[in-house]
Amino acid sequence: MQRADFISGLFLFGLAIFICFGALRLDVGTPQAPAPGFFPFVSGLAVGVLSVLIWVGGRKRRAAGNRFWLPQADKKGIVLAFGLLAFYALFLEILGFLATNVLFFLLITKYACHLRWIKAIVFTALCTIGIQLVFKTLFNTPLPEGVFRTLIF
Amino acid sequence: MDFFHNIYLGFSVLAQPMNFLFCFIGVVLGTLIGVLPGLGPAATIALLLPLTFKLSPVTSIIMIAGIYYGAKYGGSTTSILLNIPGEADSVATCLDGYQMARKGRAGPALGIAAFGSFIAGTISTLGLMLVAPPLARFALKFGPPEIFALMMVSLTLVTYLAQGSQIKALAMASLGVFLGTIGEDHFTGVSRFVYGSSLLGGLGIVPVIMGLFGVTEVVVNLEAGLKREIFQKRVSNLLPTKKDWRDSIGAIIRGSFIGFFVGLLPGGGGIASTFASYSIEKRVSKNPEEFGKGAIAGVAGPEAANNATSTANFIPLMTLGIPTNSIMAIILAALLIGGLQPGPLLIQKNPQFFWGVIASMYVGNVMLVILNLPLIGVWVRFLSTPYSYLFPLILFFCLFGAYTLDNNPFDMWIAIFFGFVGFIMRKFAYEPAPLVMGFVLSGLIEGSFIRSLLGSQGGFLIFFTRPISLTLMILALFLLLYPLLQRKALFRGRFGDD
């Protein structure tokens, strides 16, 4: 039995139940008069049937013995990358475009790319200046200025 | 007469400075990302989607098409010099290209790859001009049931695209179809699966694609740890000799036709066409034993097939609205963003767009030969760019690209979420392409399905009583069951009647 297929099949089945219940709450209607939940219900049903097939297929197949992570995986780097993405999404409008970019590039190059401080600082400076020039000067994109705007002006 | 008028129209569209400039930018970017480690055309096009808001549809598609076929050119460089396909479709090129490089013949290998791609690109663009308009005229007969049946064919063909389990691919396609229903229902105005969030307008195509392709690609590369070594750093004698030409011209022409016809089939990908070309070349060769040891025909054929496929892929997209692979699905998204509905009416309603893109393919192919031969040294230098300098920028463009769509931070969270989902999907051997296809086609599938039901007072038989729709439904059913029948036949063959 393939554990990965068993788990993913089960997860998809749960998701299908969620979709179908959500669709039923919306009202499915009838084929003559389909309501807003009709089509999501049909797609949820398809996901459900296929998830059962995945699950059954996983039971029939022999276990491959695959591990989740590759042996050389930089797990810390991956977690950090996601963490910094969340940081960016969270602080972009609070700290503003410039400050968030500086922090994002500095932290990611230092801790996820494992560059030396000097290289990380130079790379951050170049990226921030370049991005600022492209988006602010060239494209005139409206950029979030955040808390620093209030502090400066 | 129409034919020449259309060509003239196309070239006059391309002659506009912006279109010409973005054609150039597209092919340069395409070559660059084909060469660069860890950044594929799907991720790059996804990153550039926000830019399409600011460009006219024709300009943006000219650029995106340039990236697509440019990446095919660039992919051959890494295959030949590193034995690592810069692009999945360049796997076959590794077999003999790298062996040629080992023998100090990287120059002719790269040269024939460039010339072969140019010839194939030109042949398949000509084919595109000849095949697309009549196909689109035929597709004009399609009503909602036929469109729905066609979408069913498209979704079942997704399973042929999948490299792994076909059931998983179908499950992902169905899930994608569901994700496409999130937001306001176009028929009733009721919000679906929104739960008070900012999802009333639906999950944006751009954040979803950026997450699944951009963020996921970075994370997958971080996990694999990209360290590469170039076999031959100095490349010289790019121009193939007369013997090289004699050995490869047949392969190039055969590869062009194979690639074109495989690319026409919904689900026909570059990998299938390149390996088909490689095996045919090996079969027709007088010296098949040379294959795998540095036969130039083993580079020329697959490279030609690969490029021809990439052009032919546009036919099902532009005439029927069927994306044949994940990149075509993203291009479909770009077309929709630009307010164009791919399908039978696209050529009729937007001739400037269609013929402009075709003209750009001719010119783009010329640009690529000019770029690839003299600048090969520059591309080789790009090969050694450490990934640690690339991925922070890719992540930034993913997030900020998603944000700039509506200046809405929620779109960034969607991109992050789908980046995470994409990573988990890869871990459990699920592919993102079927999900994206289902997601992009969801509106069209639902619209045609509901309209068909309303038109037939709820009768599902409407899909089986009209000739075109019936044919397509039978085809979809056959495609769905074919792998099962094949497996059964294989089983019988192995174990006999016992």
Give the topology.
The complex is a heterodimer of chains A (153) and B (498).
Chain A: H1 3-26, H2 38-60, H3 75-95, H4 97-112, H5 117-138, H6 146-152
Chain B: H1 2-14, H2 17-35, H3 41-52, H4 57-82, H5 91-102, H6 106-139, H7 144-161, H8 166-181, E1 183-184, E2 191-192, H9 205-224, H10 242-264, H11 270-284, H12 297-312, H13 314-320, H14 326-337, H15 344-349, H16 351-372, H17 376-383, H18 387-404, H19 409-427, H20 432-455, H21 462-465, H22 467-495
Helix pairs in contact in B: 1-16, 2-4, 2-16, 3-4, 3-9, 3-14, 3-18, 4-5, 4-6, 4-12, 4-14, 4-16, 4-17, 5-6, 5-12, 6-10, 6-12, 6-13, 6-16, 7-8, 7-20, 7-22, 8-20, 9-18, 9-19, 9-20, 10-11, 10-12, 11-12, 14-20, 18-19
The total number of structural domains of chain A is 2
Beta fraction of chain B:
under 5%
Biggest protein-protein contact in the assembly: A-B, 65 and 56 residues
Q: Count up the helices of chain B.
A: 22
Which structural class fits the helix and strand makeup of chain B? mainly alpha
**Major beta sheet summary of chain A:** none
> How many runs of DSSP E, i.e. beta strands of chain B?
2
Q: From the helix content, strand content and strand pairing of chain A, which structural class follows?
A: mainly alpha
What features would you highlight for this structure?
heterodimer; A: mainly alpha; B: 498 residues; two-stranded antiparallel sheet; 2 strands
Describe this structure in words.
The complex is a heterodimer of chains A (153) and B (498). Helix content of chain A is 74%, strand content 0%. Chain A has 153 residues and is mainly alpha-helical. Chain A folds into 2 domains: 3-60; 75-152, no CATH class. The mean pLDDT of chain A is 86. The model of chain B has no long low-confidence stretch (mean pLDDT 82). Classes of the chains: A mainly alpha (153), B mainly alpha (498). At the A-B interface, helix 1, helix 2, helix 3, helix 4 and helix 5 of A face helix 8, helix 9, helix 18, helix 19 and helix 20 of B.
